[in-house]
User: What shape does this take?
Amino acid sequence: MSQACCLSPQEERICSHHVSRKGHERVFAIRDRVQFDIPHIDIERARYFTESMRETEGQLLTLRWAKAMKNVAEKITVYIDEGSLLAGRAGCLGRHGILYPELDGDFYREVLAGINSRKTNPFRISDEDVRIALEDIAPYWEGKTFHEHLNAALPPELRKLTYSDDRGLKSKSIVNETASYRSGLQWCPDYEKAIRKGFLGLKKEIEEKLSSLDLENALDISTKKPFLEAMLVICDAIMIWGRRHADLARKLAAGEADPVRRKELLRIAEICDHVPAHPARTFHEALQCQWFVQIFSRLEQRTGGVVSNGRMDQYLYPFYKKDMEDGILTREQAKELLECMWVEMAQFVDFNISPSGSDFYEGYAHWEAVTIGGQTRDGEDATNELSYLFLESKREFPLNYPDLAARIHSRSPERFLHEVALTIKDGSGYPKLINDEETIPLNALKGVPLAEVYDYAVSGCTETRYPNRDTYTSGCAYINFAAALEMTMYNGRMPYYGDELLGLETGDPLTFRTWEEFYDAYKKQHVHLIRRSFQQQAVVDRLRPEHFASPLSSCLHDLCMNAMTDLQSERIEGGVDFSYFEMLGYATVVDSLAAVKKLVFEEKVVSMEELLRACRADFKGYEPLREQLLHAPAFGNDDPYADAIAKDLDRLSLEEADRSSKERGLNAELRFVPITSHITFGNVIGATPNGRTAGTSLSDGASPSQGADHEGPTAVLLSSYHSKNYDMLHRASRLLNIKLSPKSVAGEEGTRKIVDLIRTWCDLKLWHLQFNIINRETLLKAQKTPENYRGLLVRVAGYSAYFCDLSPALQNDIIERTESEQV
Assistant: This one.
């Protein structure tokens, strides 16, 4: 390796095959048993959920859902992992995924029979479970799934941009709906409420509300009464589930020969007898209660990116502080308890049965964000000793969970930034950074009350969540703007789809005499796709309340309880609705437009005819032209030429978002967060005028095109800054990846460079930032000999994953990102 003397700590561990286990023996033992196993699909949740739904037709959907969850709680197998200090999981021992037939049960016949041979994100399922899924579960949901309803409801002009087949099993990768992949957006429950009140306390509040209803009022009787009855049922359900784990712990203790483990199991039994029914008294009880709520939320619904852990360093800190002062907890014991949660979290794998959904979530992607740092509700710095403990754990216990997210603001303590930089330098991609200086004022302008606006949690890839204020749950469209570029080049068509008219017929580009004509044609295609996505989402929003309910999430949500309305309902008074639409291929399009403007219309070194021929030929025979295109002005270099186009496209998009927000009565947010869809979307796009070849990945989020940025990370930040429209309201997160060589940040000087870069990013009021600090040679070696690099973690999108779990296309995407040698 050319830079063998400059490895990141992660690379050193992998190359030396050594990691210190001192103080982490318990969690390493659990990790080693399961870390790289192919996950199994557990059908119990689907089986017992379906069993109950079959018996409750005609009742309020929220009540049906709560009863189904109680049936699951009573019958699903409960587990305590060998050696763990926490109880509870959503499926079988080891790595596992579960099924949500209400969402996509119509995929079962096509997918489950061949799932054992799937190459990307493989899973295993027994023949008997396939039989039960196909003969018992799927038949009930035939004609009832949300996906089927949406497919049937989309008008032809939307369907042709959405699906490639009549049944809607395969995405067209143009305006891609995501609502049928998940029954809700990533979500953050109010864990503190459950920990502080316990579900018996919540149940008492519900009973008081029930007793105050007017039984002569039709609305109270028909909707509010069954809603509150559902809340009582869901409280009973999670308490039953907790007690079943207490019973299991006692049973395991009775058969345990090791007196130390027997004592631990009896302690687990005692804790599970107490929480989640009663308020937590200790750090261990608070953590167990949080874990029960998190797992039960997974059983309730499939949220995108699974369930956020919220601001753990805030709601757990009083318990940590008290136990430390009382002498019943040490720092190392607290860390071990947390790491038991991390290793349990890693065993749940978010299973995408939809082929398109699987393509968008490579590397078994799910990211239960743990938020640290930030500010208190009154605007003071919120960093505490738990914040540092989380960072220390992430450096000492190499694992891709949790997805650590640090909130940064202009007054973040120097020690905190230093510890964040040290953790980033480890090289596993943690933590990702979210900027209070951008998110808080923007969220306040969008309607979050000042009393709450400082108290957000990071959720999903880059999102901000207010557990008692957010009320919008529908997954929104991914929009492929490289498709709009092709529709401009080919008069409403895309070579991948032949002569099918998919966009607007904006004219033959060979007839365009000026840059303005070409750009006007592009903008028409761009706006057309955005408007189609908003139209698609209107159909989604209309259908969802008929298909989904969230009794647990509603029970923990102040606004839902005050309105006695399920979280999945269309509108809740006082709620702030953020609906996120993804802009895909941003830098690909910007760089392509810059190349066309510069080389075709201004310098006239290539004709439009030759450019189109070269793109159709995938640049074969046009290699010198491709070199010219690759050296045209590009986003990410603090180049006003490219950045002006980027800013104009951003503004054009936000103007449409503003229009839609007024039409729909909620915030239509445009953001740049691809997960791994930029790989899939790139598959249907031919060669583009920035020199990108056919079928390769599009640019990633708000990052520059792979390899196009050559002026260093500060220039990348400045391009992001200069391309933003700070006067527009409906902007949202811009996912920004920066890749640095370990050599560039070596030593204390390197740590200071990262801190300075973070300060610059914070001052520029950019939303998000994350790093890959790894040598290109390491990634290339991992491709050739994956058996030697099985534990290599890389930052993908809003999450990290094991490099060897990724497809070759995604691996290449990460390799080709610019690796800066200077900071």
Q: What stands out?
A: The radius of gyration is 26 Å.
